[in-house]
Automatic annotation (TrEMBL):
Protein name per UniProt: Flavin reductase family protein
Pfam families: Flavin_Reduct (PF01613)
Domain of life: Bacteria
Domain Flavin reductase like: 10-150
Keyword Signal: no
GO MF annotation list: oxidoreductase activity
Keyword check for Oxidoreductase: yes
Keywords: Oxidoreductase
Lineage of origin: Bacteria, Bacillati, Bacillota, Bacilli, Bacillales
InterPro entries assigned: Flavin_Rdtase-like_dom, NADH-dep_flavin_reductase, Split_barrel_FMN-bd
Coiled coil regions in record: none
UniProt EC number: 1.-.-.-
Length: 158
């Protein structure tokens, strides 16, 4: 199989969208990621996958702390901005949570200490030990087949 077929197949897995942020010195750095998941309840661990070529790899490695904001459906522009799809410099008004920059009004803001790194192919898996989090109500920003999607609300099956 070629790379395009693999990417197409992986795009069939619907995900939420996150922005990963960290602070190194006085500078804030962020990137959009949908390769994110919970790993463990005890201890509370999450993982985010970062391409070896991404500058975020060095920032997280050196900062040893990072935050993850799970975006709501109204935050497509922030996802596009932190994915480098909007070619402009913006002044982002971060929500500072336990001295870490997070995205305001996200569904969830998570602060992590770097627990472990694992090189896996052309990416690094950053496993973070969750030290704090905030949860808010709302609908998630969903990503499927290379595009954003709104989820249709349906009644829960009882």
């Amino acid at each position: 199989m070629d790379d395009r077929m693999f990417r197409t197949a992986m795009g069939k897995f619907a995900t939420g969208v996150t922005v990963v942020t960290t602070k190194l010195g006085e500078e804030v750095h962020g990137m959009t990621a949908n390769a994110f998941m919970s790993v463990s309840l005890d201890p509370k661990l999450v993982v985010v996958s970062v391409d070896h070529r991404a500058t975020m790899k060095s920032y997280i490695t050196h900062a040893r702390k990072f935050a993850i904001s799970i975006l709501n459906q109204n935050q497509r522009d922030l996802s596009a901005y932190f994915a480098g799809q909007i070619d402009e410099t913006r002044e982002i008004d971060f929500h500072w949570f336990h001295e870490m920059p997070t995205i305001k009004n996200a569904l969830v803001n998570i602060v992590c200490e770097l627990h472990e790194t694992v090189d896996a192919g052309d990416h690094t898996l950053f496993i973070g030990k969750v030290t704090e989090l905030i949860v808010q109500e709302g609908e998630p920003l969903a990503f499927f087949n290379g595009k954003y999607h709104d989820l249709v609300k349906s009644e829960r099956v009882k």
